Amino acid sequence: MIVIRKLKQIYSSCQKYKNAGKRIGFVATMGTLHPGHLSLIKKARKENDIVIVSIFVNPSQFAPSEDFKKYPRNLKKDIVLCKKEGADIIFAPEAKEMYPAGYRTFVDVSELSQCLCGKSRPMHFRGVATVVLKLFNLVQPDTAYFGQKDAQQAVIIKKMVADLNVPVLIKVMPIVREGDGLAMSSRNRYLSPEERDEAVVLSRALKEAKMMIKQGERNTDIIIQRMRGIIMRKKIAKIDYISIVYLDGLNMVSAISDKCLIALAVHIGKTRLIDNAIIDLKKNG
Amino acid sequence: MIVIRKLKQIYSSCQKYKNAGKRIGFVATMGTLHPGHLSLIKKARKENDIVIVSIFVNPSQFAPSEDFKKYPRNLKKDIVLCKKEGADIIFAPEAKEMYPAGYRTFVDVSELSQCLCGKSRPMHFRGVATVVLKLFNLVQPDTAYFGQKDAQQAVIIKKMVADLNVPVLIKVMPIVREGDGLAMSSRNRYLSPEERDEAVVLSRALKEAKMMIKQGERNTDIIIQRMRGIIMRKKIAKIDYISIVYLDGLNMVSAISDKCLIALAVHIGKTRLIDNAIIDLKKNG
């Protein structure tokens, strides 16, 4: 496994693989890899000749007030983990080459980027879509793997790829959880031991919602109220949003039907956590 | 030469060529081809194994008030011309496949898109950048050829390609002019015979500016005033803008230096025409 830092070098390496008829699988990350990321790398390893993992804490998806500077970074450990999973290349570019002085071009998947997390993070998904498109152009993967934990991100990337005719297949893999149900996230390490215990309330609220739907509840207001109640019992928790939306358009659902997404963002102390569940009445309703 | 209408088909055809190691040259047009377009096709023919010409009147670059509906279309004649120039494929997609219901993704090269023509056509370059990126993703050209007539478009496409790491080489070819100096444009056919005669005033004003610079004038206000005077003598002409800007950033120049662009847009009757000249003091100052 090699680590590549330069844009020219990753592009020419990937072109060589492509010209040799190799299938490239790609996992885009911000590093500090956890079992959620590793599940994506494992899947990519299974399905491709070459596996490339990018590690880049993308400044354009953080607002000035957000945690760009303190976002955890641990390239040394990430290299060990990627090697263990059989990745072929880590691509770890520098911000000054990804966004040189005078950088001006952004990709906007409008509407999908303004709801849910986009409400409190208005420029976030513009930054995500832009960096993912840049990485796709550099790596030219056949298939790229994203985690369902970032549900809105997955919907937006799929939409961008379809709209812009980007020749990359997007696969979205299930959320990986801790033993008690907490969704794996690099931001979990911000939590104090006490906060860590309370953070399980996100997945517990989702579990309750799923149970209600299984028992026949279809009114989303009632479901959201119950979830809200569960979370508000925790003093340390502050709800950003709880929403039930259609999976494709991310518009609000009033009565559960077919495929929808229950998504929530909750501050546990100073740490903003997200979680979600897909409801498919045909499958698990 | 074949005409392809379907997105899947153009992509798979181009992939076959690429896998066979062929170099693809690409000319994106809105059809109604004139000698300006043909000069791009000729150049592409000279430099590539495969030449693809797209013909698509792109709705997303027209404002509702603009001439999308009446924009001239003549695919039959365009086919004859492309065949004569030795193009291999005409790609003429349908708008409903390029922008299906629920289309949401746009590419914005901010700042560069707001000045010059962007002032009176605020969404125009967003539409141009978006469709060009879509076409690049479908055709996957090695080199794409654009005309210097649309100077701002050329700057924006170059910037988008650099910023988004799009692996396409952009070549910008000189303006092709009528005998009297009028820049070739599909919109020239809107002009009445009288308007056609008067339209030469754009290139005449540029010629005067170049002469002044050759004689040592460096003050852009004085140059623009002189150009303004020449055009305003024509009753039928209404100036949209006359600007002298740096070629890369498109920001205003106060004293001519190095490489800059003199650009203007003028309404001749109801028809908005553009023209420009590049000043390179090292070459022609």
Topology (SSEs and partners):
2 copies of one chain form a homodimer.
Chain A: E1 2-4, H1 7-19, E2 24-29, H2 35-47, E3 50-55, H3 75-84, E4 89-91, H4 95-98, E5 105-109, H5 117-120, H6 124-139, E6 143-147, H7 151-163, E7 169-173, H8 193-198, H9 201-214, H10 220-232, E8 237-246, E9 259-268, E10 271-280, H11 281-284
Parallel strand pairs in A: 1-4, 2-3, 2-6, 3-4, 6-7
Antiparallel strand pairs in A: 8-9, 9-10
Helix pairs in contact in A: 6-7, 9-10
Fill in the keyword field for this structure.
homodimer; Rossmann fold; Pantoate--beta-alanine Ligase, Chain: A,domain 2; six-stranded parallel beta sheet; three-stranded antiparallel beta sheet; 22% strand
Task: Describe this structure as you would to a colleague.
- The structure is a homodimer of 285-residue chains.
- With 285 residues, chain A is an alpha/beta fold.
- The first copy, chain A, has eleven helices and ten strands.
- Chain A folds into two domains: 2-173, 3-Layer(aba) Sandwich (Rossmann fold); 186-279, Pantoate-beta-alanine ligase, C-terminal domain (Pantoate--beta-alanine Ligase, Chain: A,domain 2), CATH 3.30.1300.
- The longest helix of chain A is centred in the middle third of the chain and has 16 residues, at 124-139.
- Chain A is globular, with a radius of gyration of 19 Å.
- The model of chain A has no long low-confidence stretch (mean pLDDT 96).
- Chains A and B meet through helix 1, strand 5, helix 6 and helix 7 of A and strand 5, helix 6 and helix 7 of B.
